[in-house]
């Protein structure tokens, strides 16, 4: 098998007030099921290696994470190479339980926005309250970035991690680059 | 003449000169000037021509309400018409030119219209251009379009960038005058998240110009101290050059920030549109002074009293050496006093009122030696391009001239109107304030949010409070009320500052000057300067029955110019009320709509320009396509290769080559865009039996089946191959354009109708790159990659298998949309390009070539396969297309079944699908209609069919087509006539839609 490539092969833009970089191949599993059912929770926690996230939140540890996507959907993040094993283990644990677990690692693109004003890049394209008191680490938001669906969270202060569909990776990269163009800081989110 | 004074200006820096040009003339101003103040300082009072009569126009106001001072600004990629001189900050190198005149501003041929004004009254166009009707399109409209219009349309592409910014706050305060600042201070002290917007480049509004003392100190000190206090609060955001443009439902508001209009060469975006969600909004938008209606009130040099004062105090500019002040209120006396203090002459103050005693400002003016004439008015202003004098009359009379006075400027004040625009945008009601003769916010009827509570509060002059002390108290109270409604608490020690009170005499409403002005005077009395609407026009409208203010507005065009009647509306409707003998409040106002002032289209579009105008979806192999001659076509938001051209080959030739090559050798198609939806669960089979017209529950794992999907109304909406993966999992392929909508369609039925069925769906379209390997050499190529048994026995037609092919983990579907031996290979998208490369490599000597969507279309049309969007258009049911074989008769139900049983759907006269073969081998025009005998009820020729797909088939070397035809099955062999738009009549024979390999032997090898 060839080495997997991401949509933009790790493109990076450091020309603006925040840097935009495409993240390398990442394992992603969509799990749909009854999120209040014990076997589902147990299997999800085992597959992700992190605790069950509450509504609108993400739990992470190292490069493992699990995000709440909807009342019946979770997103499990792991190393790209681990996806097939984790998916198999998940399906095994969930046999007999009505769920749907699929590999979506290649269906997505992921970007990291880094910089002191990274929050402003997001606030220019997403209708989300990015005030430091309002959007805090541990939160996970599904929303739109200008004209495409996206989800994001802040793994650390000044860093925003963005997930979108693979086919619009180029649009997302250009969009974030425009939002971060130099001399366009809003200077709004003071701490 | 107007000129720069030796006295300093509050807002300008005389140490920083700035040069600019007006109509090519080099002029000088200072940093801090507006274009208006700089032009006046250079004695450039004449700034443009009016819209209809091309009357000479000078600046009237000093702010956003300015109707006259509109210019073309900038050049090339920064050219913009209709820019207001009063809100344009001066910068080095600014280029402005005047508008709406030919050949020059000084001498304008269009001014002939003014001589004809007696023949061009309100409604002239409506009356004149009614007949003959045919003249409208070819004669009247072109002439009107050529003679009307203000600025020029930009020709060059805009070189600037724009952006949006989403933010949320507890309290949004619009207006950075003392009211807005005080409200921000109070709300800020309570700990609320506050945003304070000011449209100009300075804080404090007009209070510092009008003077007075706050807590014992000058207003400027209060502004400075309050600013410092606000700046120290992290919870308060303040923005200059940011206009509150509109207030919308649920506390949504737009702020329009002009970042580089005053410094066009600066880096970064030009405008930023703030998209704000505020829990509460305070409108501290101030008030606008009204003109007075007297004859000649549009002659350059006649200005609002407050503007004359602003130019003197803020910019050190005098608009004239001798200024006559005319008023119906005390406020204008401030102008007379300011002019006197600047050493200028005020020959007389004409006060329309007759007051029992001289209080406050009147007393002060008189003490300065200014002559005050009570009960007097202007009969007419003298002058053409510039005021030369006024004739004075009694306000109570009909305009008999008592005295003539020479002057070069007139400062008028008809009272003040609160800026209620933002209050009104979302439904705030108004009440008539008799004491001030103005509409003010009716605070008992605010715009209401989803909780039924008001979310906008006016403050200061915007709520009808005009005395400084009242303004501050009202602003503090507004903020306090808002804080309480947010369940927040104001610290006890936070109180309103106290301002000194002036003794004031009441104003008197004056809507016509003099009160009994003759028709002759009324015809020279302007209401709307930009659109040339006069008192006589409004009276004519009333006389002709336009009694509703909204009708009168449209009939006369009052308030319909780019200033949206900020100066003219109240005077206009008071005139209308007078003509109708009605009360002003019963006549009411026209509707206030956002934006408050025009905002740029760039700001509205935001970042969506150029490459990111809209998202373009890209497949994993898109880079390769771009590098290998692909000509693209839009399919949904994808750009799919239409054909891959080689060298100098035309696109048509490339398509022909691709078809032949695929039929004879080996073609590769990037089919990644096809929708792929996983459906899983114990009820998945039952669910799919409802979604598709045919049976999917009986499909065996490892097998594929072609299926049709209909809407509830029976119309065909999508098609594709369904593969059963395991006992409770299916994979549904959709059309490229249908992936998202069919996914949503499935979710909708699962969530709203069959919520108790155990089914989950997931859209995995983008997880896979999918490559169709098509043609007689397809199997050989794949066998060369090796790893899977692809023999007919192991993987028959409509089978699928998982496996490893040439080291790639793949899923192979043996399906065909071309009639050839064909495999579709799905692979994780991250490996798509590598597999594509491998296939091209192993297929090189087998004739492997990529093909595009046009080849795909021809291949399928030769086989008579339908295409969603060609053979269907939302009105076609599967039965029309002869697809009855794909409609289960065994199933009790499926979406669309009931609808397809309706009488109209079973009508035998519905047009049905057939093949069409031109008699001479030419290609039918797409969309052409077949003509029948006779005419329909509308006298139009009857139509008996239409072309849905048409191509030149290189395989058959002739034109082939499909179409929907009346009584088609009974007409096989009949020849139909299709008139083309090229004047030719195409004749085509009705044939079977399958043109190629009817037995299907080629795909089944």
Task: Describe this protein's structure.
- The complex is a heterodimer of chains A (191) and B (1005).
- Chain A folds into two domains: 12-24 and 107-179, 2-Layer Sandwich (Gyrase A, domain 2); 26-106, Heterotetrameric sarcosine oxidase (Alpha-Beta Plaits, 2-Layer Sandwich).
- Helices cover 21% and strands 34% of the residues of chain A.
- Chain A has four helices and eleven strands.
- Chain A has a six-stranded antiparallel β-sheet, covered by helices on one side. In chain A, strands 4-5-6-3-7 form a five-stranded antiparallel β-sheet, covered by helices on one side.
- The longest helix of chain A has 11 residues, at 38-48.
- Chain A is globular, with a radius of gyration of 17 Å.
- Chain B is α+β, with helices and mostly antiparallel strands and 1005 residues long.
- Among the domains of chain B are: 3-114, Ubiquitin-like (UB roll) (Roll), CATH 3.10.20; 162-285 and 418-485, FAD/NAD(P)-binding domain; 289-415, 3-Layer(bba) Sandwich (FAD/NAD(P)-binding domain); 529-587, no CATH class; 675-766, Aminomethyltransferase beta-barrel domains (Alpha-Beta Plaits, 2-Layer Sandwich); 908-1005, Aminomethyltransferase beta-barrel domains (Elongation Factor Tu (Ef-tu), domain 3, Beta Barrel), CATH 2.40.30.110.
- Chain B is built from 27 helices and 51 strands.
- In chain B, strands 9, 10, 13, 14, 15, 16 and 30 form a seven-stranded mixed β-sheet that branches.
- In chain B, helix 8 (305-315) runs parallel beside helix 9 and helix 20 crosses helix 25.
- The chains are: A alpha+beta (191), B alpha+beta (1005).
- The interface between A and B is large, with 54 and 53 residues.
